[in-house]
Amino acid sequence: MRGGAAHRAPGAGHVRTHVIAAAAAVGAVATGTLTALLPGTPAPAESPAPVVDGAASPVLAASAGVLRDFGQMNAVIPAETMIPVAYSVDEGDRDAATEQRVASVQKAGRLAAQLAELHAEEQRRARTSALIRGGGRDGWIAEALKVMNLPQDLAPGVKRIIMSESGGNPRAINNWDSNARRGTPSQGLMQTIPSTFRAYVHPQVAGRPISDPVANITAGVRYMIDRYGMDTVRAGGRSSAAGNYLGY
Q1: Domain count, the chain
Q2: What residues form DSSP beta bridges with 247?
Q3: Model confidence over 114-151: pLDDT tens digits?
């Protein structure tokens, strides 16, 4: 070339130096007649470049090698990577599964209790309906409690009050007490005076007369609850220390 030195092709030693340096940089593993380059694996210093026709061959230096024995391969492929992994159930997972089973059992128990309560409620309603259809004192009491949306287990206490007040006669009238002397005699099963009846009769039966058994019961019970509380009704009215009925 004009004005410069002649360009010379690199010699064999120069090429070999670059090939070996490249192999050393990325790592080479000989597998048969091919050399696999593995990052991070140094080139074996003890393996000389093959000689072809009296000169070292840079091509064979990169492709022709000798298979390494198993001991040498262990340095490339760690033995621990071939060990099977053993799996086990974590204690937390086991506890979660147990909690889920317990929750399922509890839920089933609650559902069973709810179904049992529904069945019992249906039976109570059936008994109440039968009492109402049968009429009489028990039927009147059952209907009055149903109208007031009060529990039917108050019936024994209400019946005790009725029997103590009127003997169970819906047309009973008291003509001898202080109310009678004022011109407002007590009347009906619960022996309510007209003003008390009007103030406390349940709205659903307010159009009935004071002598109506169901209407009279609602007025008397509502008055007692307002004046003395539910427990007094449940107990069958007020009583003396000796257990005698005191009225209301």
Answers
A1: 3
A2: 238
A3: 889 888 888 888 989 998 999 899 999 999 999 999 99
- Given the structure tokens 């003003």, which residue do they identify? 195
- Contact call for residues 139 and 129 (beta carbons, < 8 A): no
Least Cα distance to 164 among 235, 236, 226, 232 occurs for 236
Residue 28: strand pairing partners: 37
Residue 50 sits in the same domain as residue 123? no
Both 141 and 240 in a single domain? yes
Residue 80 binned pLDDT confidence (cut-offs 50, 70, 90): low
Greater pLDDT, 94 or 235? 235
The amino acid at residue 236 is: G
Q: What is the spatial distance between Cα 35 and Cα 30, in angstroms, rounded to a whole number?
A: 4
Fill in the DSSP letter of residue 241: T
pTM above 0.90, yes or no: no
Report the run of H or E that residue 28 belongs to, with start and end. strand 28-31
Which is it for the CA torsion 226, 230, 233, 239, positive or negative? Answer: negative
